[in-house]
Design a protein that fits this description.
The complex is a heterotrimer. Chain A is an all-alpha fold. Helices cover 73% and strands 3% of the residues of chain A. In chain A, helix 2 crosses helix 8 (185-207) and helix 5 (139-161) runs antiparallel to helix 8. Chain A is globular. Chain A starts with a helix and ends in a 5-residue tail after the last helix. Chain B contains 10 helices and 10 strands. Chain B is globular and about 65 Å long. Chain B starts with a strand and ends with a helix. The chains are: A mainly alpha, B alpha/beta, C mainly alpha. Chains in contact: A-B, A-C, B-C.
């Protein structure tokens, strides 16, 4: 029982991190119709911003976190300016490839500055554990889950209650009509790229104390997020986060009870199975024919 | 003689909206022309989409008495039912003759075998196909553009190229979504001539159209839709006088 | 069905004399009238003369590598440019081809190993596309990323098949009907010949009804289906053919180096092989068959010349992809056309 609970909690925490990447992917898909392959690397970047500010520059924890999130937002805007804005009129594949190139670029830059040696971030609330039914649950896992819930609620509130959110929903339901109504697409995509990068950055700050940060950290995690987004729907933030938690728990259960030595293969298997059996997730949004 | 295409009680729902509600239509083989008219949003295009297998629907669609499943666009095409779209769909990258050739029902040697080991046999088949495509292009008046890329065509020419693609498939029924939309008077006249020539060659038509003169020239029978319901049907001259149709188009006061 | 059956009635509209003349002769689609004989001759001569310039073993390594990557890039071109499918699975087919061929050729000789590798990767590629037939573009790209990762993990764990960290040794050198390709010169000619055959097959495919239908399916999506085209069949076939090219490259890799190890494909290297091949095709240009070949040669030779850049390799590749996409979407092979267009525009302006 204790083992089950601790596996369950670490699964939920894993799912929360992939969920944070998934939130960014969904936000961008809603506003632009494009899947950003650099989303995972924005998480890595968030982690390294934290390490740089907190460990290397020795700034106070709160300040480092806030600055890391702001920096992530800025990088998101740059990604939009370089990898999306100039290609807006070009085929979808050109944009996909450019985000992929940006992902490699971020990885390469991180590798050059911080080298490939894994680094860690000290957990903000120490490495203590919380006992629940005999299971030891690290404080960091609890923090991950709480922060993800808060971020998710904020994003949902933003989408439902604010002008910005209404614009996103309008653009995602009928792009051309929304643009004709005077929505400034350029500004909107810039903000959304920034916002999803900031969310990914938060994920990076949360995961860095658990898994050590290496340049490919985010890209690996992103595969789980893809599975979540495919299962939960490319246009639903709630669905994607819920699916991310399911995927995270399933992965931990498989690793804990079935075959632990294949741990690294599970994200791939889950993703492939999801795509073979639910291939149509995107169809509605990408049918290019106007009847 | 039984109907070639028979749609019974077709219903399409998008979430809570019933876009097409229990509409039936049957059309004879051999050149019958049925017009499908109605105000914007009355479900005409959705009806065609459902029949051609693009949107899921309830009801029954039969071709020559055999039931056809929904959501399988290829099956409908192979049964001899072709459709055109509101905005002409042509591949801008390909030339006019290539755009026509793709729908040739002669599928032999159009894969790896024909490309590699059986090339001589492929050439023989291809020459026959080119000849036929040339004739079809001549029929729609685009033969002199045969080797130009479709990207350079005018809107009206694209429309005719789309019709050429449909004719190449040797269809028995064409479903046309506003073929005259966006054409000027001369082009509309040419199109009407082309379509009456097509029907006299034995191909039946279902037409969605807004231009009254065009409908009167071509259609034997029309069906009027409003908000997804059929409100009238019959020969054009009679339907115009139907009070329900007047109400739908002109409002209550009339 | 023959043509005579379709008794098309005389056209109703009066014909102009010009189009009557046109109707008298057969209209031949322009694809079939383009001739590339001179380009072909030039390429064959250049390929044959490479050993005159290259004399060192190191030079031969580069030449052989260029050839292998050219075959990989041609396979990717098949899938990406012709079928319109973006895939990350290149390293997976490359690796499967290499190991399959290694095992079969150790016991049954090179030729059979090569054929089995090609068939196995073709089937694997076809299955990938078939199982994901309903996946739209981006889904498919993501799925191939997962597929590739999975294949590499399986190979890493299946040490009895792959030889683990040491790799698989003792793969016999290529031989055909008793003729041994035992020197680097001979091996170079073998690979150049296979690459040229692959190119020829691609060119033949591009000038065939299959490519016409495939283009229509690629560009028009659902419209192609309502037009009765065999969309799935065509895409599965083209994707499988591209995968078979990659399998062939894998087989030749083992047959020239004598051993295959996982370092060429492992998780970290896997992204970079996929990336490298993508960059080759983009840099060369997807407008014509020569694009991927030129891209493969440039990107194999260049890193050797700029070996001091080794630490910045990934950075340079990423920047190069971005630059090509932003500035030169047609790739290097589009430069002459671009240049001519610019010059024409310049002249027009000068005349005014």
């Amino acid at each position: 029982m204790a083992r089950f609970i601790s596996i369950l909690f670490s699964g939920i925490a894993d799912g929360a991190i992939t969920g944070l990447i998934a939130i960014g992917i969904v936000l961008l898909f809603k506003t632009t119709g494009v899947v950003n392959f650099a989303q995972g690397d924005l998480l890595t970047l968030g982690a390294y911003f934290g390490i740089w500010l907190l460990v290397d520059l020795n700034l106070p924890t709160g300040l480092s976190y806030v600055m890391a999130i702001i920096l992530s937002f800025g990088v998101g805007v740059v990604v939009e300016r370089v990898g999306y804005a100039p290609l807006r009129k070009r085929p979808l594949l050109a944009i996909v490839i450019s985000t992929f190139a940006l992902s490699l670029l971020i990885e390469a830059v991180i590798g050059l500055i911080f080298t490939n040696t894994p680094r860690t971030l000290p957990p903000p609330f120490g490495s203590g554990v919380w006992h629940l039914f005999g299971a030891a649950i690290p404080y960091q896992d609890v923090l991950i889950i709480v922060v993800t819930i808060v971020v998710f609620l904020l994003i949902q509130g933003m989408l439902q209650r604010t002008t910005l959110g209404r614009q996103v929903r309008a653009v995602s339901s009928d792009r051309e009509a929304a643009l004709l109504q005077g929505i400034r697409a350029g500004r909107l995509t810039m903000i959304m790229f920034g916002l999803s990068a900031a969310v990914a950055g938060i994920g990076g700050l949360l995961i860095a104390p658990v898994l050590s940060a290496s340049p490919t950290l985010g890209f690996t995690l992103m595969l789980g997020s893809f599975a979540a987004v495919v299962l939960g729907g490319f246009d639903r933030v709630g669905g994607a986060v819920a699916a991310a938690v399911v995927v995270g728990v399933a992965q931990q259960l498989l690793a804990g009870y079935v075959a632990p030595n294949l741990n690294e293969a599970y994200p791939f298997i889950i993703l492939l199975v999801a795509l073979v059996f639910r291939p149509e997730g995107l169809v509605k949004a990408t049918v290019g024919v106007r009847y | 003689m039984s109907a070639f295409l028979e749609c019974k009680g077709l219903t399409v729902r998008f979430g809570g909206v019933v876009a097409v509600d229990d509409v039936s239509l049957s059309i004879e083989d051999g050149g019958e022309v049925v017009g499908l008219i109605g105000p914007n949003g009355s479900g005409k295009s959705t009806f065609l989409n459902a029949v051609s297998g693009l949107v899921p629907a309830k009801g029954r669609v039969e071709v020559e008495g055999r039931s056809v499943p929904f959501g399988r666009p290829g099956v409908m095409a192979r049964n001899g039912v072709f459709r055109t779209y509101q905005t002409p769909q042509v591949d801008a990258e390909l030339t006019c003759i290539e755009n026509t050739l793709v729908t040739s029902p002669d599928l032999a040697l159009r894969g790896l075998l024909g490309s590699w080991p059986l090339r001589p046999a492929m050439w023989r088949r291809e020459k026959a196909r080119w000849q036929e495509a040339g004739q079809v292009l001549e029929r729609v008046g685009l033969l002199d553009r045969a080797n130009r890329r479709a990207a350079g065509l005018s809107y009206g020419e694209r429309r005719r190229l789309e019709i050429a693609r449909a004719l190449m498939a040797r269809p028995r029924l064409l479903l046309m979504d506003e073929p005259a939309a966006g054409l000027n008077t001369t082009e509309t006249g040419r199109l009407a001539d082309l379509l009456s020539e097509v029907t006299s060659s034995g191909i039946s038509l279902v037409l969605i159209e807004h231009k009254i003169a065009f409908i009167e020239q071509l259609c034997h029978r029309i069906i009027v839709l409003e908000l997804g319901h059929e409100i009238a049907s019959g020969p054009p001259k009679e339907v115009w006088l139907d009070p329900a149709v007047m109400r739908a188009y002109l409002g209550e006061a009339v | 069905m023959s043509v005579t059956e379709s008794s098309s009635p005389p056209p109703a509209s009066p014909l102009t004399s010009a189009s009557e003349k046109l109707a008298a002769r057969l209209v031949r689609p322009t694809v079939y009238t383009r001739h590339q004989l001179r380009t072909w001759l030039a390429v064959v001569v250049v390929a044959a003369l490479v050993p005159v310039v290259v004399t060192s073993g190191y030079g031969y390594n580069i030449a052989i590598n260029s050839g292998l990557f050219a075959i990989l890039a041609l396979g990717f071109y098949f899938q990406f440019a012709l079928a319109g499918q973006f895939s990350f699975a290149t390293p997976a087919y490359y690796a499967v081809g290499a190991y399959t061929s290694a095992w079969v050729s150790t016991s049954h000789g090179f030729l059979l190993g090569f054929i089995v590798a090609v068939v196995v990767t073709a089937v694997l590629g076809g299955l990938t596309k078939l199982l994901l037939a309903r996946s739209p573009l981006i889904h498919f790209a993501i799925a191939t990323l997962a597929f590739s990762g999975l294949v590499i993990i399986i190979l890493e764990n299946w040490t009895s098949f792959t030889g683990g960290d040491q790799g698989k040794f003792g793969i016999p050198a290529a031989s055909l009907f008793g003729y041994q390709f035992d020197t680097q010169t001979k091996q170079y000619y073998l690979i150049a010949a296979v690459a040229l055959i692959c190119t020829a097959l691609l060119l033949l495919f591009e000038r065939s009804p299959a490519q016409r239908d495939l283009t229509f399916v690629r560009d028009m999506g659902l419209v192609a289906k309502t037009s009765g085209l065999r969309a799935n069949y065509l895409q599965v076939v083209a994707f499988a053919a591209g995968a078979a090219y990659m399998g062939a490259a894998g087989s030749l890799l083992g047959a020239t180096t004598g051993f295959v190890d996982l370092n060429s494909f492992s998780s970290a290297a896997s992204v970079s092989v996929a990336l490298l091949v993508l960059l080759m095709v983009l840099l060369g240009g997807i407008g014509m068959v020569w694009g991927p070949i030129i891209g493969a040669i440039v990107l194999t030779v260049l890193p050797q010349v700029l070996s001091s850049w080794q630490n910045y390799e990934q950075l340079v590749y990423a920047l190069a992809i971005l630059l090509v996409i932003l500035v030169l979407p047609g790739g290097l092979t589009s430069l002459p056309t671009e240049f001519r267009a610019r010059r024409a525009k310049f002249r027009q302006r000068a005349e005014r």
